[in-house]
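Intended use. Records like the one below are meant for learning the mapping from a protein sequence to its folded structure. Do not use them to infer anything beyond what is encoded.
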Amino acid sequence: MSAAGAPSSDLAMRLHRDLDRIWGTPPGVGRLSAVNHTIVGRRFIIAAFVFFTIGGLLAMLIRAQLATPHGAFVGPELYNQIFTMHGSVMMFLFAIPMFEGVAIYMLPKLLGARDLAFPRLTAYGFWCYIFGGSILVVAMLLGVAPDGGWFMYTPLSSNAYSPGINADVWLLGITFVEISAICAAVEITVTILKMRAPGMTIDRMPLFAWYILVTAGMMLAGFPPLILGSILLEAERAFDLPFFDPTRGGDPLLWQHLFWLFGHPEVYIIFLPGAGMVSTILPVMARREIVGYTWIVVSVVAVGFLSFGLWVHHMFTTGIPHLALGFFSAASTLVAIPTGVQIFSWLATLIDGRPQLKLPMLYLFGFFVVFVAGGLTGVMVAVVPFDWQVHDTHFVVAHMHYVLVGGFVFPLLAAAYYWLPHVSGKVARYPLGHVAFWLIFIGFNVTFFIMHLTGLLGMPRRVFSYEPGWGWDLPNLISSFGGFLMTMGFALFVVDVLLHVRFGRTAPRNPWGASTLEWATATPPASYNFASLPTVSGRHPLGDAPELPSDLAGGRGYLGFAREGRQETLGTHMTAATPDQVIVLPGPTYLPLYTALATGVVFLGLLFKVYWLAPVGAALMLALFMLWTRDTGQFQDRGPLPIGRGASAPAHSEAAGPPSWWAMVFTLVADGVLFSSLAFGALFLWVSAPGWPPPQVLEAPWWKPALAGAGLVAAALAGRRAVAVNGKADASRSAGRDPWLLLAAAGHAFALVWLVLLALGTPGPTLHAYGAVTVALLSYAGFHAALGCVFALFGLWRSRAGYISAARSLDLRIGALWHGYTAVTGAAALLLVATLPRLVMP
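Structure written out for the chain above:
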């Protein structure tokens, strides 16, 4: 609290010292325990750029090989590994983690919060990303990198055609990284919806937050199909379950559906954050408010929805029905409309503004040229007859690079120069950035523009050599020359950034004259971002109140004090942004690192076929996750807490909609998509795969699945009853909730027993895909029942330990969500298992 009569600068300095002591990260080895979003965000960005460098070097090897006919630089086996790793590294280890890093670093500052909703989850996601990416890179150095293409089509990636661990490295390494992506998606979604500054209503959110919110939602719906596909393919390779083997009732096309259900939204998952950067930077450079805020928001949401209707766009040549071709072709061209709305809004902003041609703006001009060209060729390949002509040629390679580099890399470079003063506290002293831009821009277009011609001349992608005299010699040589020119540009960019950070001049607080909240922090920012939290009254907080930075530093906003050594920030209503809770965040801890290491034990056990090690790692991982909860919760009700400005709010553990409850909701959304994909897979194989009906089906009497379902339903009802009873009780331990929690655990255990018995009775899981998908459905339900048992027993322990009261019911409510979800999906899985034999048999 403030001391009356002290000068305001002394008060601000005292507040800074108090908050920094609470929010700071220990030095030295203690930095490994960092969970602060500024530190973890920077780590994500640096790591992603390192992977980008690796991917770029692999691209140079590709261009060296293809520069001349009969290139002898590398052989076909090594070339297969190089182009597979180039695509995998750029898509999974650079583009998505880079946007995650930018979002993790920027979002709390843009929203007026002190950190993200789940700092330890952020750190855990970072370590999973590093360990998963390292598996891929180490495998490449040892010569056993994946070599089946970044899309790992079956049957090429199945055991028969890809023996060894190359494909397993991709499946397990990428799945490891995807854990990081799902963590980030949950984290970002909850943070944007629940942690905006008071007054920042949903229609006052910065556009960057809108873009990232839609992107995170797409990740929750887009990644689970790929995770499922990876699990099924790894199960086929490891345990001979024939999901994709057409000789045993499987279908390679199932992999393509699951992959592109992720793969096409992935393009927009990469593009939308880049577009969000454009929408943030461009109005500042144009010195004008952006034109069409509402239209842009609507178009971003529309792109998010439409992107999930286009996945067959990549499968036009697989022999699907003509009606489906027409539908997906129309949907593919339709997405150009909301994308066009954004482009015209940006152009209108420039035309009506007073653009200043500074370095970020230069990169934005590069973005316009490159991305619009990529969008136009995208419309071309959305037309089925044209796509049939250029499918799997270098034309598609050129189109993809124009879209992804234009839509993400150029905006990213603009953002790098725009926010470097914020990150480093310095402004550039040397003009190397302009030279780097022209090298990158010219080099990129020299490389890829002519690649359209190479593709139209018929050169297929993924070939390591070609014959002279087919018209491909000169275009390939020019592309290779452009590639090396572009590499020089990126190298100069790195030099420029290093010089900027080391020798740059001290930056003013807001060098661009922007109006968003991140420029209200110190530069570089303090560990707590804001000494006190702002109140927002419009879309331009700094433009509306230029004195805001000094007011916040002086503690004249919300939470302008340090209380009991706790890391506190505000939670607000999802749409109205009125304060509704005080969120207490955890401090630095090594637990995320240890938990990620335990997760790595699971994946390494599977990779090296040491299967007993995987459950050991899983048990260790579960135990470590349990340890995360030891410093959360409280033993007594605290009631409303003062938050400054004469207001008060409850602690998040006593609030109606705390972040962890919403995190469980969004996690279950992603889980539900995975289950839906599994159910789709089972039905797809029945309808489309050759070799059906199977020789044998499950002949269990109806009451067996009914008993399993009854156990799940009983667990769900008991979980809800525990919450209801707790809400009517006082804070004593004899509230009557414990028997219901015990019953919930018993219901899950009962269901698990019957699910295992049904799985053991399934005939021939390795003989036919029917048995494989039946076991997969039962395993899904069994896994959730087992975790439901853990949730119920955990709630019981928290109840007995005194963490639960009528006001503090968060643990019970989260458990009830899980029990309910498990009952619904478990019942659906059992119904499908019971019905499938009647559907498939004549």
